[in-house]
Specification:
The protein is of the alpha+beta class and 461 residues long. The chain is built from 13 helices and 18 strands.
Length: 461
């Protein structure tokens, strides 16, 4: 029996045990955006480090830089003359959102009748962590060695934009010389249909506050004569898009890269019917699909998008008959090639200043963002990955884009000299990443892990 066959067989024997690894990680509420969970993120990093050791990795450490949530690191580098892969995932998770909308306890992993494991981080991205550790264990504990060298880095602040990544790379760059980067933090095209992501949108964000009064006022005594910040902000936000939902910010589309004829042909071959998209997204009856472009996937992968992520004026639970003094919103823009972060925010700020109503005070605060990323697929590593995915899933993989951002990818790839970056998904369209009732399709988790086992073999020389 070959080493590969031994590894696959061990995975089949131990996959229930590997799922328990995932459940243990999901139980830790490692919400990097919440200061109340700082200790939980540290606990999560320690648990990941313990898992790396348990599954056979060496030189395991918690890596930190000042002000950052901790990373976990481990390696196995005894495959002389073979390529070295950096394997990336992250252990931090999003806040739970509205607890009343969860059908299960967010941090108690629960297996549903639909074959999905529910829990915050079950898919994004603690499943990615366990895909990596399980594939490594399957080889090391059966064949006694890996066919390639691996360096595993599990980040602790991806969900807040990897804001300390530059400092982390500066301090720890010497650890990460490699021939390819493998990230298990993206989605598949559909359940059971694997994909390699070659395009990511970037992200910039701006907090906007309108102030019209020194304090809130009685709506009966003052209404009709004083500026209402909530109404003013509503008017301002409405100017950001046109009647189709496309951005209406002057000059925002000027630098957007047009798709080549070949890219458009491939995109149209993948596009799905509007009815299927509406079902996946959960669009309510009567609501339109936004944007002028006919292709849903072009909108999601290759065109910029604007969203209002949060609104704040007063509380519905504590509603009073007042005119509010201030109203705030967080505005996010997903960027694409060749939009630059600073220039995008400059245009957004100029638009808001131009359309700010009634002379109210306008306060704007920029947040850290992440760049868009795009890669070609000519390197042989992509061929190896496509073959490995087909072996693991039993279906050909597709080349696809992703509407989200992974700030880690572009700077890390650049620091490694532009080595091929293989973004291999584990989420499917029903995962609900970042939303309530996040879940992982366990069948796809198994297929993804088998694919990584095959990838190790196919990447060896």
């Amino acid at each position: 029996m070959s080493n590969l066959e031994q590894a696959v067989n061990r995975f089949e024997d131990k996959k229930s045990e590997y799922i328990e690894d995932l459940k243990e990680l999901v139980r830790i509420p490692s919400v990097s955006a919440d200061p109340d969970h700082v200790e939980d993120v540290k606990r999560s990093a320690a648990a990941v480090a313990d898992l790396l050791r348990k599954r056979g990795l060496e030189n395991v450490e918690i890596l930190e830089v000042e002000g950052a949530h901790p990373y976990a690191y481990g390696d196995w580098c005894h495959a002389e003359g073979q390529p070295t892969l950096v394997l990336y995932a992250h252990h931090d998770v999003q806040p739970i959102g509205d607890p009343e909308l969860w059908k299960t306890e967010p941090f108690e992993p629960t297996l549903g009748d639909d074959g999905r494991l529910y829990g915050r981080g079950a898919a994004d991205d603690k499943a990615g962590v366990v895909v990596v550790t399980s594939a490594i264990d399957a080889f090391l504990k059966s064949a006694g060695k890996l066919p390639v060298n691996v360096k595993v880095i599990i980040e602790g602040e991806e969900e807040i934009g990897s804001e300390h990544l530059a400092a982390f790379l500066k301090e720890h760059r010497s650890r990460f010389d490699a021939d390819a980067l493998v990230l298990t933090d993206t989605g598949n095209f559909d359940t059971g249909i694997p994909g390699i992501t070659t395009a990511l949108r970037g992200l910039v964000a701006l907090k906007v506050t309108l102030r019209g009064l020194r304090q809130s006022l009685h709506s009966g005594s003052w209404g009709g004569a004083v500026p209402d910040a909530a109404v003013g902000l509503s008017r301002l936000l409405a100017t950001l898009t046109d009647e189709n939902g496309d951005m209406a910010i002057e000059g925002m589309m000027d630098s957007v890269r047009s798709l080549s004829a070949e890219e458009r042909e491939k995109l149209e071959a993948l596009d799905e019917p509007d009815e299927e998209f509406r079902r996946k997204a959960g669009i309510v009856a009567g609501s339109r699909i936004m944007g002028r472009s006919k292709s849903v996937l072009e909108k999601l992968w290759h065109l910029p998008a604007i969203s209002v992520n949060a609104l704040e004026a007063s509380s519905m639970k504590a509603a009073r008959n007042v005119i509010v003094d201030t109203a705030s919103a967080r505005i996010g823009i997903r960027t694409v090639p060749n939009m630059e972060q600073g220039g995008t925010l400059d245009k957004l700020e100029a638009h808001l200043k131009k359309h700010s109503p009634w002379g109210m005070e306008l306060i704007m605060e920029r947040e850290g963002g992440g760049d868009w990323w795009h890669t070609e697929t000519t390197d042989p590593a992509f061929g190896a990955a496509l073959e490995a995915l087909e072996e693991g899933y039993g279906k050909p993989a597709v080349i696809m884009g992703c509407g989200g951002s992974i700030p880690f990818v572009e700077p890390f790839s650049s620091q490694l000299g532009g080595v091929p970056s293989l973004l291999i998904g584990i989420e499917d369209p029903y995962t609900n990443a970042h939303s309530e009732n996040e879940s992982l399709h366990l069948g796809d988790w198994e297929k993804s892990t088998r694919s990584i086992i095959h990838l190790f073999q196919k990447m060896s020389r």
